[in-house]
Sequence to fold (333 residues):
Amino acid sequence: MLIIRAFFSFIIVSGTCWRCMCYSRIQELGSPRQKLDGLRHVRVFVPVAVKEGDNAVLMCFFDLNGDSLYSVKWYKGGREMYRYMPREVPSVKVFPITGLSDLFIEKTKSNGTHLFLKKVTINLSGRYSCEVSADAPSFRTALVSGDMNIVVVPSAFPEIKGMKARYKLGDTLEVQCVSKDSRPAANLTWSLNGRVLDSEYVKQANIKRDSEKGLETAVSTLTLSLHHHHFVGGRIKAKCTASIHNIYWQTTENSAGEEKPKDAEPSTSISKDALQPSNVPKEGQKKDDSANSRGHCCYCASHIFERLKASYVRVPFSLQLVCLYILRYNIIS
Fold:
């Protein structure tokens, strides 16, 4: 079969090119090539954020595709700190890094794909790189990196400041939320009665840095003109949420009541002269006889009763009964 195909190629192509054509055809049919890609698909998984004092696990995965693994190395900021070589004894080696005395690698839990860090501190934030090297036949090397942040979470809940006990319609609600001593500064969001507020009502968080502690404090201000729909059941509930990456989330909620305007109340004060009829004897004048006194008493009770009604004063029922009783039976006091 090979001789026949070469013969036809010689007839079609003249000159020296027929040799190249015949050779290429023979290679394709007689000895097919074996494709060995070797080391590829190196990928690293570095946690984005880890709470200070917790353990951290860094992972590095790869496909050898026919190659043999020569070594896996981990770097912190370009300096080697860990090496795994399966053909050596011991296979795991740890290298100290100057200035990072708080870097502790658990050898028994680390291998060619996993790197176990114990009780990380804030100094260990930064870039970590995994370098994978293959042995024969490809001798390939690949380096992949990822960043890790060590987080110091606040020791207390966020605090809402400046909230009054009561607000009226049209008042301005202006309160602050403070989340102290963290790194990085907490992200602060506001909600009112369970609904997240738009950014137009929130002043962008102000970050205060403590150079001695190396920690940060976040401050956010909410300013909102209150309307009827802001009061649910006669109250408003303002909530502040502080969060850092996916490892810290705390909320604080304060509430205030609605102060309703007082209704206009009629004056309840009645002058002394208004309660005294005009024909009642004044001081120093001679009093009338008993008949006149009876008439004056009845007139007085009637006059007081009418004056109270005219003044829109709510007359107690007991007083009404007394006046009516006096008028009915002409009782002399």
Summary: Helices lie at 2-12, 17-30, 290-310, 317-329. Residues 271-333 form one domain.
